[in-house]
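I have been asked to look over a protein record a colleague put together. Alongside the sequence sits a line of tokens, each denoting a local backbone shape. I have pasted the whole thing underneath without changing anything:
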Amino acid sequence: MWKYLLVLAVLAIGILYATPNLYGRDPAIQVSGTKGASADLSVLDKVNETLKENNITVKSSALENDQVLVRFTNVEEQLKAQDILRDSLSDDYISAINMSPAQPDWLKDIGGNPMKLGLDLSGGVHFTMEVDMVTALDNALETMEQDFKSDLRGEKLRYRSIRRVSGAERVQVIMRNDDDKDAAERFLKQRYPLYNFVDDSSNSLAFFASLSDQKFKEIRAYAIKQNETIIRNRINQLGVAEPNVQQQGAERIIVQLPGVQDTARAKEILGATATLEFREVDENADVRSAAQGRVPPGTEVIMHKDGYPVVLKKRVILGGSHITGAQSGIDEYSRPQVSINLDSKGGAKMSAFTKRAVGKRMATVFIEYKPSGKKDENGKALPPIKVEEVINVATIQARLNNSFRITGIDNPAEAHNLSLLLRAGALVAPIQIVEERTVGPSLGQENIEAGMTAVVLGFAFVLAFMLLYYKGFGLVSNIALASNLVLIVGVMSMIPGATLTLPGIAGIVLTVGMAVDANVLIFERIREELADGRSPQQAVHQGYDSAFSTIFDANITTLIAAVILFAVGTGPIAGFAVTLAIGIITSMFTAIVGTRAVINLVIGGKRINKLSI
């Protein structure tokens, strides 16, 4: 009895959680708050009023889980509404387009949701982005140089110069005397154990510092992981539900944005690599001479956005990596501004500098890396072009801390875009879009229809073969096969991170063929037992028992292969592995336990002389 109940319970749960897929999805827009804000009834009223003023037909709108969800009858109305809401909502809210499940509320209450569809089925845009590791290394060496200077000043160890060696991946430190040189080298070795330190054979007061292999690996791994995080933040600002961001190889990141058709906007936000630096203005420099290339040591000329040169000290007071928040707004004179929030380390750096620099001028430098559009002989994208521009020069009136603001911005739109990029984060290394693919909604629908056709045809041919070859037992096998498909859909719907892709459908088609393997083994063993003169009841019992170990071994080896594919594969391979692994597990249950229960229910405890096999 407990086996019957187990089979019924598993089937009931599978059917229940597969049911949401029958209701389809509505094109929808999801409005949610940023920086801890939540949508309320006033936001819902504003969204409804805005869409009504622009003659946008809405299927329904409601406040769900502190988010506004607006459903539409077609994709065209959805995309039109997205453009309108993006311009009308404040920075505190973002609108994300998605396909919202249309199942009843009672199914939602028990966690019943349809399967998530991959990019190839739902439509959208696919980017392959490459991280510029050369710039990541340059930034690390520049940071090393600045850290050495501040650390040795803090230890009151006097140095003559600390500079990066031209054309080499190391920094040279020259001290004033032997005692300071020994003390500095000892201090830095203790403080930076992952750096390599060697004496300069040509100068007894100097030594070199370089990155160890372990440190370089750390920089590479951090650049990838931090860029992944920043890209996800930018996607949140872009407004996309259920994106897919994952590493591919050592230097590339795959970004898939289901439902996005505005590729220009996506490239603008994802491809932009912008940050800020705060530098001290050299008050003693002759601007006219500097503009002609004669600059004092330790300084450089960067053009102001209004077209005149500004002489800045090379030492960076604060970099964009310390920025934790940015908000555009209007100052007391109705001019655009961006309010900046810093982390604790950045706030300490800004406070320490401005404490001793009251009355001096500080420049805000906007840095952007633009794709070069060129490739080397191996087809790899060349490093992007670094573009620097001074957007603001201000006199420090008082000591600054974790929060301050920058002005001198031309218009509110520019302030909004700058705050968006800064709020998303500063990249450790620039990224370039090296590949772009767009899948339209109609193509996604064609993929679904083609995949379903393959499943139906494969299912129909297997059903026909089993029914003709194994007669009554073939019918039982077909019932198990149908139950297996339902269970696969149910399990895929229950797993939060599972996504159905076109290769995933291929995995289901393969599972349809593999699912009857176990029954073929069992039924052939039953035929052998009958040929040896055993009774029908004994033949069924021996057939299931003796075939079990063979079935188990065969499926376990295939399952191991599927797990490895999922662990090391990306994209299509992982999608195929997921459905294959789920199909193997469910097919073992339906083919062994399920068919045994049905056969036992029909012939168990009965005197029969012949089996329909």
In short: The chain has a mean pLDDT of 82. The longest strand covers residues 309-319. Residues 20 and 113 are 6 Å apart (CA to CA).
